[in-house]
Design the sequence.
């Protein structure tokens, strides 16, 4: 009798157990949904469970088989892990704002392959932060008995700096300093030779021009104009601008000075130095105490430079400023540079901002040269083509 009653109750127990199991499953699903909605961005461990073996539940003498449901929880990765999974991007050219000196120095880079054989592509759409390059010129050299194309340097025309006090080429509107008798000055004795002396007298010519009679420390006297006199004192920063007429102390003789034009003001790109282009086309980086301002410079300082290629170069340089044309060379690269009226083979030894040191192969002569100098074979061609294009545009 008891056995019959037990058999009759088994279907009821099974049905009750199913209802309990279904309710448990619904509660688990609701809990999972609530957890996902309450913490949408929280990182939680990922749990992936495969269906387990049959779980035995005992209710009286009956055993029920139940399978657990697998639940997948999505985990939000932190930003640093996402960044680590991204593929690396190619290195970009830095803007002038990010340049060190470069300071420092200009970034050395290789031009892309170009099928052009001999043409420079000129760009006149200059922007503050943009670089404009020319297509490289190709020539043939014998390298291990193989004809290997040698790429010419890329010529860039980029903003030298962005601050107005680094790029200004306008003479500041300041009161002129007085020049008087018994004043110690630097005066022109010869074209490339200035010396220290004292003003003995100031002479007024019939046309109103002033002449200054100077007695030099190293013998001799001379009657010079105001643009052939320089102050013996160190100039003030507010007096300086690109294009200022200056004289620079010679390294080999502290009593002699050489005339030139201020070509760069201190900035990150030149390691906070002054660049002076001497009248013989030699560029030098100097500190403030090493050069002096001319007392009464001409309205156009280029008119004070002797006639020749350098005079034309300086006129073009000041016209292009603050977008000077520079060739991009690297140490060890070979090139042709004019020396004694002829192009000669040399090799780049060092790069120093806008300058580079080269050594000539024939006589091992070393010198510093500006990377925009017309003595460089490729720069001379570039300037020639640029001038021809400008002349064509003017005529049109």
Sequence:
């Amino acid at each position: 009798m008891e056995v019959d009653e037990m058999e009759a109750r088994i279907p009821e127990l099974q049905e009750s157990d199913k209802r309990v199991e279904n309710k448990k499953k619904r509660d688990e699903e609701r809990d999972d949904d609530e957890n996902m909605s309450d913490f949408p961005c929280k990182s939680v461990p990922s749990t992936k469970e495969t269906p387990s073996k049959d779980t035995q539940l005992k209710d009286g003498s009956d055993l029920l088989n139940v399978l657990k449901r697998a639940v997948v929880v999505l985990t939000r990765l932190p930003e640093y892990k996402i960044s680590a999974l991204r593929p690396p991007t190619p290195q970009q050219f830095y803007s002038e704002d990010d340049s060190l000196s470069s300071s420092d120095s200009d970034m050395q880079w290789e031009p892309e392959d170009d099928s052009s054989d001999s043409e420079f592509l000129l760009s006149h759409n200059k922007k503050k932060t943009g670089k404009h390059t020319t297509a490289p010129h190709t020539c043939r050299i014998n390298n291990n008995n193989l004809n290997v194309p040698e790429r010419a340097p890329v010529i860039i025309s980029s903003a030298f700096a962005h601050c107005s006090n680094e790029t200004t080429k306008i003479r500041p509107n300041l009161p002129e300093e007085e020049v008087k008798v018994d004043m110690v000055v630097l005066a022109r004795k010869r074209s490339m030779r200035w010396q220290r002396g004292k003003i003995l007298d100031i002479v007024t010519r019939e046309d109103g021009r002033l002449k200054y009679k100077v007695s030099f420390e190293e013998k001799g006297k001379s009657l010079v104009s105001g643009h052939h006199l320089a102050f013996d004192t160190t100039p003030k920063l507010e007096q300086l601008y690109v294009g200022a007429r200056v004289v620079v102390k010679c390294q080999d003789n502290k009593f002699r000075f050489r005339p030139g034009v201020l070509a760069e003001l201190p900035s990150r790109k030149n390691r906070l130095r002054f660049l002076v282009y001497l009248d013989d086309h030699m560029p030098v980086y100097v500190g403030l105490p090493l050069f002096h301002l001319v007392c009464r410079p001409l309205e156009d300082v280029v008119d004070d430079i002797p006639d020749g290629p350098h005079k034309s170069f300086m006129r073009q340089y000041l016209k292009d400023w603050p977008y000077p044309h520079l060739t991009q060379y690297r140490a060890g690269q070979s090139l042709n540079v004019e020396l004694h009226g002829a192009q000669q083979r040399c090799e780049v030894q060092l790069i120093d901002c806008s300058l580079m040191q080269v050594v000539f192969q024939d006589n091992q002569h070393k010198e510093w040269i500006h990377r925009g100098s017309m003595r460089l074979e490729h720069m001379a061609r570039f300037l020639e083509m640029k001038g021809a294009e400008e002349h064509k545009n003017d005529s049109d």
